[in-house]
Design brief:
By secondary structure, the chain is of the alpha+beta class. It is built from 13 helices and 14 strands. Helix 2 packs antiparallel against helix 12, helix 9 runs parallel beside helix 12 and helix 11 packs antiparallel against helix 12. The two termini are 27 Å apart.
């Protein structure tokens, strides 16, 4: 018989027992749906981590002062040993580095007009800070090297600060006061929104780091709290860490074998480790969910064995009329594969719907997470192919048993 005839015959046979066929594929449906949801949630977690690190900047490397024992050795405090000169040396002498910015933290009330507001972030930074953070300007311009050299009283604000201090106004050119010192707003940062833990990234004011040190803190020292660095590419980030470590060890006169008085953190490596962890968890959960596919396959085999018993006389009649053993084998195999494939399609549809529901639930309870909805087409196709393979594997024994029946014995079967 032709394959098309066998396929249509198999569909008619399965259609005669709709309830039994539906119950048979239930295990496959649950298995494929569970795998689809697990893969979707896992890939969504990976995408969320990548998005979160992307908001930090492009291939960012952060240099912190090492921590040293405080009074009585009871607690540790950061050493004050990083300087703006270190940042400039990194920019000049490390070929794999694209941009560098010193950073000095501060905290104070900001007054604009009649409004008093305390920003979540107040930072003194360098002119290349936006390049390091991969941040754009929404209005105006960022301060320059000249502003840093002269410790000019200029600042750039985020959207939240704009709305709080200058509602309905163009903030560029306006003045605000920090510790009663007037600053001119020269630009507004592009909107970023909340981070993973819900902190408003737009509630920020940036000033030249020299201005923060000299005018707000009254310090004549050139030390900085942190140095933020952007590598030229993700592939060169590890090389950048090596170059930065060697350069700072030389500048700080660290003897070989002695601990460094600074720490270098590579966010690219941290992101890569996080992706490996989420990928491993996704694979583990998907493997657990796939067990139900095997359960569904056993169900298919049992039902097909029952079907062979019920249709023994029909098989005998078909063989008596000229049907060959391979025709019988192919028909039962087609029925098994069709059951699994239909279950796979329904499972994928339910899995996608379940993924949307779970993602919506996560974002409803944790809005700051901004969990992305990711549907993996390759995973869906692999799941469908696996479902068909399950049907063929577990359907082969009943199909072979049917094809080996003796026609005379089959005709006598009651």
């Amino acid at each position: 018989m032709r394959f098309s005839d066998l396929f249509l015959l198999s569909l008619r046979t399965l259609g005669k027992n709709k309830l039994r066929s539906g119950l048979t594929v239930l295990g496959v449906v649950i298995g494929i749906a569970a795998v689809t949801v697990m893969v979707s949630i896992g890939q969504g977690a990976g995408q969320m981590i990548r998005n979160e690190f992307a908001t930090l900047g492009s291939n960012v490397i952060i240099v912190f002062p090492a921590r040293k024992a405080g009074g009585g050795g009871v607690r540790e405090t950061p050493a004050q040993n990083l300087t703006a000169a270190d940042a400039q040396a990194i920019a000049d002498e490390c070929p794999s580095v694209r941009a560098v910015s010193p950073l000095v933290g501060a905290s104070a009330q900001v007054v604009g007009g009649n409004v008093n507001w305390k920003p979540k972030d107040m930072q003194g930074v360098g002119p290349d800070y936006l390049d390091v953070r991969n941040w754009k300007m929404d209005d105006g311009e960022f301060f320059t090297d000249r502003d840093v050299a002269a410790a000019n009283k200029v600042c750039v604000i985020g959207h939240t600060l704009w709305i709080k201090l200058f509602p309905g106004m163009d903030p560029v050119g306006q003045q605000l006061r920090v510790k009663n010192i007037p600053f001119t707003v020269v630009g507004v940062l592009a909107k970023k929104g909340a981070d993973l833990v819900g902190n408003d990234q737009d509630d920020i004011i940036l000033m030249p780091y020299t201005t923060v040190r000299k005018r707000l803190q009254g310090s004549q020292f050139s030390n900085v709290d942190v140095i933020m660095i952007s590598a030229r590419s993700e592939q060169e980030s590890a090389k950048s860490v090596t170059e930065i470590t060697a350069l700072l060890a030389e500048r700080h006169k660290i003897a070989p074998g002695r601990p460094n008085d600074f720490q270098v953190e590579n966010t690219v490596e941290i992101a890569r480790v996080m992706n490996i962890i989420t990928g491993s968890l996704t694979a583990m959960l998907s493997a657990i969910a796939a067990i139900s596919l095997l359960v569904g396959g056993v169900g298919i085999m049992n039902i097909m064995l029952v079907s062979v018993t019920e249709r023994t006389r029909e098989i005998g009649i078909r063989m008596a009329l000229g049907a060959r053993s391979r025709d019988i084998l192919r028909q039962f195999l087609i029925e098994s594969v069709v059951l699994s494939a239909v279950g796979g399609v329904i499972g994928i549809a339910l899995g996608v719907a379940g993924s949307y529901a779970v993602t919506a639930g996560i974002n409803a309870f944790l809005p700051s997470a901004k969990w992305p909805m990711v549907v993996s087409i390759p995973a869906a196709l692999i799941g469908l192919a696996f479902a068909a393979a399950v049907g063929m594997f577990f359907g082969y024994y009943p199909a072979r048993r049917a094809s080996k029946l003796d026609p005379i014995d089959a005709l006598r079967f009651e």
